[in-house]
């Protein structure tokens, strides 16, 4: 029997502070561009849970320490794929499992499950994005209700270079529109903050030095509104989005994501299809990778 208390995510990976009615939650792995290993994501879940339980906190800002918001999943040596954590969505422990029983359980819990928990928080959340927000970073930002981006922020998903349709929580058509989502995925090209604003994905674009001040001003304005009214308005929009296919669509594409992993594992022995941190580095640099299907 697995000891589910084996590993608890360190609090210093994600910082939590509150100023008045506004909580600020900060991803704190700047040395790896806030790349997401299990420890970081579970620490982020702890911070969101703290925000949910904090009656003095009305709005949360999610930020990233350092020059980049998040470079996505940690594919390097600091990743922790085979580590047990206190699970949040009642999936079995993936550690020690093989094949789909490992990947499907881990990614259902760590990516889809946690992102849905954060999206469904009854309080408003704002992502303050600077620099790179790529691949897994998109899922975290999209889990927030609003995105305030600095003028130097950029967005990209190079998952196709791994032979995968897109990141696990596939919000692309709802965030970008169908045709722009296809171009975004087919080319792996960066989307600038200004372009993302024109598409409606980003709420506001500000200068880098004004990012946190602008996000805080917006959060403080929202925090003055009635809590129940905000919760119901958020739930209303989320329910309408789900009726437009968001929930069933993301479930369906997650199945395709797992199919791609299984194909890669069967044909190459690597569930990422030979992809590596170099793919992420190219996305950070603004170029698409090329791989053999």
SSE diagram, text form:
Blueprint: E1 14-19, E2 22-27, H1 38-53, E3 59-64, H2 100-119, E4 125-129, E5 132-134, H3 136-142, E6 146-150, E7 154-156, H4 172-176, H5 178-187, E8 191-192, H6 193-198, E9 204-206, H7 211-223, H8 227-243, H9 246-268, H10 277-285
Parallel strand pairs: 2-3, 3-4, 4-6, 5-7, 6-9
Antiparallel strand pairs: 1-2, 7-8
Description of the molecule:
The protein has helices spanning 38-53, 100-119, 136-142, 172-176, 178-187, 193-198, 211-223, 227-243, 246-268, 277-285; strands at residues 14-19, 22-27, 59-64, 125-129, 132-134, 146-150, 154-156, 191-192, 204-206. By secondary structure, the protein is an alpha/beta fold. The chain starts with 13 loop residues before the first strand and ends in an 8-residue tail after the last helix. The model is unreliable at 1-9 and 288-293 (pLDDT under 50).
Reported by name, the CATH topology is 2-enoyl-CoA Hydratase, Chain A, domain 1
CATH superfamily label = 2-enoyl-CoA Hydratase, Chain A, domain 1
Rough outline = globular
Q: Which CATH top level class fits?
A: Alpha Beta
Between the first and last Cα atoms, what is the distance in angstroms?
40 Å
Spatial arrangement of strands, main beta sheet? 1-2-3-4-6-9
Number of strands: 9
Helix fraction bin: 40-55%
How many domains? Answer: 1
Task: Round the mean pLDDT to the nearest integer and report it.
Answer: 87
